Amino acid sequence: MKLPIVFLMLSFSSQTPGITLARLVLGLCLWIAMIESALALPDLNDKRAVLLASLDHPKSLEIGLLDRMEQGARDAGDIEWIRAVWAYGLLASDSAVDLHRTRGVDLVPIYSKAIDLARSQQLHAEAIDIQYALAYHQEKLDLAEMDRLIHEASSYHLPESHARMRAVKALLLMIQGDVAAGSRLMNELTQELDGTLKLKDYEILVLKNYIALGLYDLDQNDKAIRLLEEVDTLTTQLNLRWIRMPILHNLGRAWLRSDEGQAAGLRAKPYVETHLSLAQEFHMTWDEAMALVSVALVDMRIQQWDAALDKARRAIRIFAEAKDSMRQGEAESVVAQIEMERKNWDVALSFAQQALEHVSQSGYKRLMLQLQKNLYEIYKAKGQIKDALGHLEQYTELYKNLAEEREKNEFRKMTVNMGLALEEERNRNQAKELASQRLMNRWQSLAVLFLTLGVLGTVLALLRIRKINLKIAALNAFVRTQVLSRFLPPELVQEISEGRSRFNEAAERCDVTVLFADLCSFTLATERLGAENVSRILNHFLASMTEVIFRHGGTIDKFIGDGIMVIFGAPTHISTEDQAQRAVACAASMMKELERLNRDWRIEFQWEFQMRIGVHQGASIVGTFGGDRRADYTVVGSAVNIASRIEAAAEPNQILLTATVAKHLQSALIRPAGSRRLRGVSGDVDVFVLTLETDGKPLDLAG
User: What is the pTM of this model?
Assistant: First the structure.
């Protein structure tokens, strides 16, 4: 656009009327030509050009695409019309365009016709994307629809469509609360991108952006940052400045979430400042407000309080005008945190309360959790202890609710349901006992006048109570054999039954050894083998591993899908050396047991599994957590997090140990594996690999 403007400026500076007119006409013609060029659609026969244009600046295509769609297909082979519908569907399902609402265009018949034409022209990738757009438009996008699209992409051998639909399914799983399944699917896609999946540059951009968003929601910041940086580099190479804005936003937020110090703020700063610059250049007010919040968070990290406060307040005004209550609450929470740092408690309280009110309307529980914590700290600083404790209680309850939402293991559900059923049965028995007691009292009252009838009534009541007590004893036996025996070794179940060991004691701090084990590529097995076969495999796996764990004196804390968490040293205390040796022996035996199971599975299912195991020892809080109607005996603390992350860092069929475990073993049994940087853990963690063979012979730790 600069060249025509220069011509217009020159035309008015010339002293010769003829030359002036000629230059004016030439400048106008060039200007008009460039405007038409800017608004023109790319070649709709060139799929790459259409997708890159939509990623660059979707609003510039919106009018042209919708006009072409409304013209309709000229014939059954109109590929340009199919591509126009396909491109508009991609943008509409990503909420980038909405002109059809303003014009009142019904997209359903257009999408439906385009799907049929795309199939007839063998444009199966476009047909899948338009079906996705149709389901999104009709608000019928669910897991069943995603599974159907994934199957269709697989049947037509479309790896890019197959991967993209699986990424969308993973995001959908996490939105619905099934974080474990979504996480496994995202990790599988990440491994495939690093290995066998070969895609074009723009397909890699779209897919990696989806995966990075999922990893970001799962708090897997290291993986999310790595993918987002790759995507940002690709957008720069392709000169896609529009789509770079959300990528820069997510990169900045991921770096800020990775650490609480100034270093993370400095790493995030160039990304969020570039995001702000692009948003202002494109006159995208809402994106500008998002960037202002990110820059304010960075300014907070480097303690530039005035600059942070100015940007956060500007963002509040923009979000308020846009009536975006959730984002307004996020910006208000930033102001509250800044005022807390400056110890302006009254101002901080005002903004924190406003933020909580706005965020509660949107149900953003993670931010609500942070605000409850902030309000607790503000009231505590103001000396209003009662109000502080009230917010601490709400924080604790919300934290428990968030944890429960993420717990989607089916075996866990069955156990909880069985526990509820037992609780209901106990309540019914208590009601029967009360009724029996009342009946007995009535008979005792009548016994004063009617001694014979009174004695008879008392006998009947005692017989009824005896029957109820027998039923309660049967229920206790059921709990002992069907619940406790599933998680605890037989000798420990006996101790609990005899009252020598209890789960209802107060929590205590002690050293325990935590073992995490997890099958690799389990979701892929589900897709290939089917739900029924996988269910048989999983039950067989968990039952066999339970026997191994009990044989080594371990306590099963929980089953997590295809994974197991085991503790040694609780509820029965044993020395840290004994804990470590039992846990390592158990891990080696679990690997040996998996080899035996694989021999059977190779014959029956033509499939075999690999397993990762991580073991760590450290101080933790051990006890029963919950209420009267439901409680769990479990371990909480950093030792659990470290063990889980050590397991995630292990290679398939590898057992990783931390130094606190390795120090209790002979040096011949371990080899150093360097240091690892774990999220949420200060400093590097030294890890060791358990040697499963010595001098070419399998290692025997069973003793």
Answer: 0.44
